[in-house]
């Protein structure tokens, strides 16, 4: 009733109620482990994420585990909850988060970290691990950003590194045993530290040199491994995938069935963290995917199904899968939505079949404007490729084209930046060169330039990041070069990229900055209307931490990097080699043409590695 | 093609589902129940479905209407399947094939609500005096502007069902539908303004039924 009163006064109350179709409701009497799956953003964002769909149903398929969802309340709801002293609660049973056994956060982007601290605060759970004590739940984190766990080391009891479908069950088994034993919390951490992929930050000491770089990171517990190897799935056909998904009662960002085709990427773009940490490429078979699609369509009633992967054109079973999906979707009046594909005659044909109707827009990601720059980042795309693709698209009746670029890449010159504008003009020219009877009217070329953020475990992990002024200058350089009404130019706020850069490659010492920034009131940093850069500057200033140390410096190969406590499979030797090749503008072949010896095969391989 | 009218209730957490989200919710439920909805022709086909009267977020109801066109005649089993395919808090109570001469959704004229107010009380005579006023002027928000309006013509009846020291239950019959629509929340605001000592800060609203201009339910 108290909650009802609040919900009457907030925007989109459906965010907070959780009685959606296919949500799981269990009798608490039968439940032994209560698990709070926390997504540090609003409902519409969190519910669009594939990981939550997988783990929610996987955990709830275990009889004695009840996994419930928790999202960050939007600012209006947070204010009301604080006024009414209502602690953060789960959607399914409205239980305070504090009463759960395990509280797990998923780390999808660095700019959600302040929401994690805020959610713990709203729950009445001390954010700092050492202040939590024996009666508080275990708090842990996983997801792609956990590959550099260090900025959150002060807050988490442990991290799950890698893909956790298999490992999470092992951790739950260990929890069950520990709970029965009645031992203290530390005993649980000691029990799980030997499970692959588990990183327990308190079992490691970090010492620093005078210049602030790391002297050593070493285990202080006999059971803790020297480096924590990522966990990953070997057999994508036999690993758990949900046959049902929650169907939200309000509109969310990606409101459709997601079919995950494969993990990893054969391409090896040097800026791309996902392309490195999700190696090796492992595919699901078209047969398995079609079986899943049929079940998911039946159990959800969704009117749209989409294919998900890092690079769908590289899926070896694409033809078989799309033919099969088309049979299924046409009959059931369901839309098949295609991700951005590499444009060739096969994909044009495919798009004609799938999108019989509106030819709205196509997206291309050349990432860089000049050929030199594209070779540096190992984006194996030439200008001719792009021109051929856009010409095909224009001749096929598409009149809208989106082009995605990055600025601030290593070795980038003003000429490389200007080349972005020049390439956009060439795309316009390609449209004008297309015979009038083939092309559609109303050309729109959208150029989007985002700021490059160096990420851990990529060949660019040593690179200095451009500062705010440089990024702004580059953004304007493009703007000044563009002179065609058909081109629409977007760019992103660079202060956010700078902060993202600090946390992406940060270490344990950022914990106090995060805590201070939270005290000052930051939250929802990824939301333009909420981001308060001045508060972050204040937090750095008050804690005496210099953000420039993390992103303005080019690191040397001698330096121990904070995230190297994790072993993602790709070796340091490979990353150094790739970084050197980048400097020379040398391309590296994709995993199917030839093995570049990244190290994943030594870790156990699988998929494309055999 | 067969047209059906469904009468449904909306309660519990489902009361927070907005009007705009309902059509999508129903069309997904029909898909899950394997009931083939009829789609419109054209570039962007959509199910042929119409909801009788919007219900504000936060209000429960036991008498909402939705008309839908389906490709075949439905059986009792279909209705059972449909209810199983609904999210918690949405339940089909009644359904009938739409035949010529039946009232249309556009004929909706009145809605009956039960309003529970906690923390304040009322007497029969206070309600009577309120209804006997010459006019009841309140600020009414329309799509474009905020203006003073007399809502009295849109109140057919207010009856006191229960009255205690710490709360009352009222029945209200108010204008509803395309021509005129009065929200019970606004009546509470007016009553708080014009009735001495009455405060409606903590309340729950339930729609009991929707009536046509002939004063009948639509099924």
Helix-strand pattern of chain B: EHEEHEEHEEEEHE
- So how many helices of chain B? 4
Tell me, briefly, the overall form of chain A: globular
β-strand percent of chain B reads 35-45%
CATH topology of the domain at 2-229 in chain A: Rossmann fold
Q: In one word, what is the shape of chain B?
A: elongated
Based on CA atoms alone, the radius of gyration of chain A comes out at 24 Å
Main β sheet profile of chain A:
6 strands, mixed
Indicate the multimeric state: heterodimer
Measured as a percent range, the helix fraction of chain B is: 10-25%
Number of strands of chain B: 10
CATH superfamily of the domain at 2-229 in chain A: Cobalamin-binding domain
Count of individual helical segments of chain A: 21
Give the end-to-end Cα distance of chain B, rounded to a whole number of Å. 20 Å
Radius of gyration of chain B: 19 Å
Strand order of the largest sheet of chain A: 2-1-3-4-5-6
Distance linking N and C termini of chain A: 58 Å
Total tally of structural domains of chain B:
2
| Low-pLDDT regions of chain A | none
